[in-house]
Amino acid sequence: MANLVGLGKLAVVAFLALTTLSCGAVGTTATPTSLPASAPTAVAPASSPPMPISRPPTPLNQSNGRISITNDAASLNRRIKRTWKEVPIVPDVLALSSASGSHGLLLSPLPDIPQAASVTLTLVAEVTPPTVAGQVLQASSVAIKGDFAYVSYNTRGEPYHGAIQVFDIGDADKPILVSEAIFLDSDIHSLAFEGNYVYAIQGTGGISLDTPAGFDVIRSKNGRLSLDGNTRVALPSFAGTGVVVSGNSIYATSGNNGGLYVFDTKSFSQKQQASLSDARWVDMEGTRVVVVQGGIPSGQISVFDKKSLALLNTFSFTGADIPESKSTVQVLGGKAIIAAGNGGVQILSIHTGTVVGTVPLPKDTGLDSSVVVTNSVAAAGKLLFISNGEAGVYLSEAVDEFKATASEEPQDITLLGKLRFDDLQSVNHVAYEGDTLFVAAGLGGLKIVKVD
Hints:
Blueprint: H1 10-13, E1 25-27, E2 31-34, E3 61-63, E4 67-70, H2 73-76, E5 80-86, E6 89-90, E7 94-99, E8 104-109, E9 121-127, E10 131-132, E11 135-136, E12 138-145, E13 148-154, E14 162-168, E15 176-183, E16 186-194, E17 197-204, E18 213-221, E19 224-235, E20 240-246, E21 249-254, E22 258-264, E23 270-276, E24 279-285, E25 288-293, E26 299-305, E27 311-317, E28 328-332, E29 335-339, E30 345-349, E31 355-359, E32 376-380, E33 383-387, E34 393-398, E35 413-419, E36 429-433, E37 436-440, E38 446-451
Antiparallel strand pairs: 1-19, 2-3, 3-4, 4-15, 5-9, 6-35, 7-8, 7-35, 9-38, 10-11, 12-13, 13-14, 14-15, 16-17, 17-18, 18-19, 20-21, 21-22, 22-23, 24-25, 25-26, 26-27, 28-29, 29-30, 30-31, 32-33, 33-34, 34-35, 36-37, 37-38
């Protein structure tokens, strides 16, 4: 869906929002809800050496009243449908190539499908979304870090329910769902993982919490979630929108009446803040932190110094002008790669604001234009995977790697076509790293694709 689900619930929880808030953290105590049966103790011969422990024990299933964690991989993996099916790349009538030096589009016919891309895509797994109190959750975002992928879920409308799933993707051919956390009072809109902790950005209807917006901190040991030391940190506004972690600092954004907030990773005390309107996502590279914001008549990025949080520049771009919608930003090679809603993909230099590349929205989809919006983009190497809402996932390819080119260098990008899935209805997010692509397909759950 184009809009960030959960933001539409603002009226229900508006009375919880504080115009000026001193952010605080609320700790919780984990209580095991089920214990695994004790295994028989093996008796070794007297001459045998002690049996070595090959791996640390898996955390127990836990619950604290708000959050329930399951670490039983055998039961969780019943939701995975394993497959090995090629994902065709279906070209549009025209390939759209954008070189921003001319600020125009170069149109040329696409070759046949087998020649359309330098990659092969294989659907290796589909994952059924969790259900809470009879309500099916929708996949909202994905964060990939090393051998693990973390997936967030939220709900359409009320009530507030969410989830986090952790996948072991060490073997790209066979992803394994190793852990899951169910939130009974919160939508999880986005997340980040760093230093054995997951930071889950949320909007909530829990009246016992200080504000609707915030984030939970949940320990993750070898991919297994644990409530030991779980803490919730409050944010101003109605819903949290983005988070990135670096060193001992957490950079989190929240929407209307919110902004960018920096917290310490140990004490969770607020260190810095910058008030921003309609802050939708945050990313960083080197010494720069970049926030994408919605606005009328156009969206903008705000560029901050990572250490001082001094505002260095703001640059506007086409798109991101639909209220209560989702936009993302990824910073590579000094360039902000922006999912700009009805503006498609916009690529800006974070130093001068120069538009160095664009990928427009697909045309002639047969869908209402309101549901064809770019709400997420994932770049790595030369490839650009684009989430266009109900229009699905599209793939573009650049001549040069995004990270290798200078921030002011025009990006020559070709739209190769649409990824054809049998049953894809809408896409909320895409994440791509290494040889794995995750497609957060809303109520359709997840599609996990191997990229060769």
